[in-house]
Amino acid sequence: MVDTGNAEVAISWWEKGVQKEKDGSMNDAIRFYREALKTHEGVEKLYRKKLFEEHELEKKLEQLRLDSIDSRNDTVSPGDQAQADEDEDDSQRDPCWLLDILPPDVLSRIVHYVVLQSGESWLNLSLTCSTFNRLCFHEMDPYRTFARMIYPKQQYDEMAMDLNGISNIGIWEKEFWGPNYRKMLMERPFVKFGGIYISVVNYLRYGANQDGSRSWMNPIHMITYYRYFRFYPDGGCLRLLTTDEPSMVVPHFSTDTPPRNSEMCRWSLGFDHAFGHLTITRSSSKYTFVEELQIKDQGTRIHQRLKWLSSVIIDKEGEVTECSMKKEKPFFFSRVRSYLPSSTMY
């Protein structure tokens, strides 16, 4: 049962926060929001309910006003009526319950622009209410918008296209998925640019006892190192192998400020492994390094993981040396808000 006293106080704090946010005073707004949540954790729902009830009441009052005007039309002069209408219009408040005020096509446009911001924003909007959930995930337009945003940025290997008889990606898309963009997004992997892929490797290394030690057991060292991949839509990939933790690397991991010992690579997608064959190459004066991975799902998160397939070194004579994958672990994608403008994050 809702504590009426606490609820009213919480709503009051929340309304002050809303007003401060409208005025541009975000620090004050956050302070009021926090006070409201401390007073009642469900204050946002209570506030929205209050807005809805107020809007419904306004509609009823408006209807009563119109009925009253109709009954007075025979007795009020045109000049007096115009003045009365003007006074009443000035006193009216703008309605604020969006789902009742805005028509479906406007709500669909809101969904469209939210999808262009990021996949995360798309998901968050769908969780707000049943109406937006339906518009987000039970209509084809959001899927089409998202697909047309991400797939043109994917880099496909030209040799792989020739071997598979593909000369035009657009035609290939239509042959496989037609207008079903939802199915395409589920089945067709893509590289994500709005964050970083991280692989964490832990292994034990057995040391040796010091001379003269009487211990029967050798010391054991836990070794941890990290691999980082950050992909770019132009086909570039920033790569780093280090013992530095993500908190030290991620904020500044960029081609503008490349970390020490990082390397710039090239990436491309092939059509094997359910269209998720990812190849990363880099070269030195003596060797070419080729790393192959597969884009896979992580639970309910689609295309979130990179699984190792192989890693080879090719020398100038063309001799190939395979690297051991025994200790290597898969990469997992982590979204980083600061990496890209919001319109290209996903």
UniProtKB/TrEMBL annotation:
Residues 70-92 are annotated as: Disordered. Residues 100-139 form the F-box domain. One of its GO terms (biological process) is SCF-dependent proteasomal ubiquitin-dependent protein catabolic process. Residues 177-251 form the F-box protein Hrt3/FBXO9 C-terminal domain. The keyword Transcription does not apply. SUPFAM superfamilies: F-box domain. The keyword Heme does not apply. It comes from the Eukaryota. GO terms for cellular component: cytoplasm; SCF ubiquitin ligase complex. InterPro entries: F-box-like_dom_sf, F-box_dom, Hrt3/FBXO9_C. Keywords: Ubl conjugation pathway. This is Uncharacterized protein.
